[in-house]
Design a protein that fits this description.
13 helices; six-stranded mixed sheet; 467 residues; eight-stranded mixed sheet; 2 domains; Alpha-Beta Plaits
Length: 467
Amino acid sequence: MKGMEESTRAQQLMDMVDRQKELIYEAEDTIWRNPEPGFREWKTSAYLEQHFEALGYQLTRAGNIPGFYTDLDTGRPGPKIAILGEMDSLIVKNHPDADLETGAVHACGHHTQCAALLGVAAALKEPKALEGMCGSIRLMAVPAEELIELAFREELRRQGVIRYFGGKVEFIYRGYFDGVDMAMMIHVTRLAEGKTFWVQKGANGCISKNITFQGVSAHAGGSPQNGKNALYAATCGIQAANALRETFVDDQHIRFHPIITQAGLAVNAIPETARLESYVRGASYESMCQYNEKINLALAGAAASLGCKLELDDQPGYFPLNNHPVLAGVVKEAMRQVAGPDSVGLKEGWSTGSTDMGDVSSIMPAVHPYVGGAIGNGHGSDFFIENREMACVQPAKCLVVAADLLLREEGKRAREVMAAGAPLFSSKEEYLQALDKVTMKKQAVRYQEDGTVILDYKKSEKDFESR
């Protein structure tokens, strides 16, 4: 009898989402046509704010960055769960639908999360939507999940606009997750093995890097002997790091993938400055730090070999994602209600991508599953949404049903999640302290008057930058 009641209740909630299809599809289309990279999502945030306020929500805006959150209280005491939607796009200039000026496009599918979040918000405002639930639901529109344009984000940090590069990380720092007991979201991608939804164990974290090689400019044809080629130093550094790859331990899933963002200003001048952006990714905080130090040594040695200087600017990226198994179980139950008993898969593998949902998972139970509906390669020029209902409507249904499962019966299932294992950090403060230990900005190559060279590439307490 209980199972039948749960099925009936789930169907009622799914019907409420179905009645919001027009709103959901309009949001998906509008946000797709107006892509904005991280910390620039002002149009997207304003669009969502307008619709949320029309539904009667009171918003807490982030203010000097895009994004907001709002609380929906059931009127009965209980746990607080967060449902998230990411607003930012990528930059893929050769995508057919990329913005002609910025190259921005939602080749990540985040626009579908916004559409689903709006569908959740609208459905939960229907009569009897909160019937039987306790506690509250925090709906969050978050910026800047894609860790791109690192120099732009460093400038925002220098100006005091942000402290951290990731949107959820910044939201944690600002206190927007305070009081939240668990968090969930669903990310669109291609269908996998015929499954509509699936969950995996977790994903890599990362350290973000701005790397500057500094040489000496000279006439490239007339007097190259008077120059020190920063571009050559940078390419030597990349090759030195590549030579380390066979030492990367397999189960730590280490990744290093630099791009060169500046490599000289004129073809007839020896490049004086070369700039790189990259991450060091790994499956644990410890491995990220360990291999970042190895790569910094390789970069510093390359700079010194050509008589160049090297500035290393390491900033916190994201913590590894660890999907909470008990919360994932509740969400999988909701997925089966939405898409059928054979529609949900569990991947035993580990993702080598990174997400700032990992930071959320380090301080509370969190889950970041996937739904099909897209075609092409994620982050590629051929990425499109093929099945809008699967990509936008079914995630909204799943999140609403999961919220109901968690908050019914005086929050019994939510309390089971909270009792089943502690996150990596016991407090936000402990987490932020660990995050800040990654920060390092220094000249990694120093030339002494006696001709010796000092490679200073390691983090030490005296290097901690007051933030």
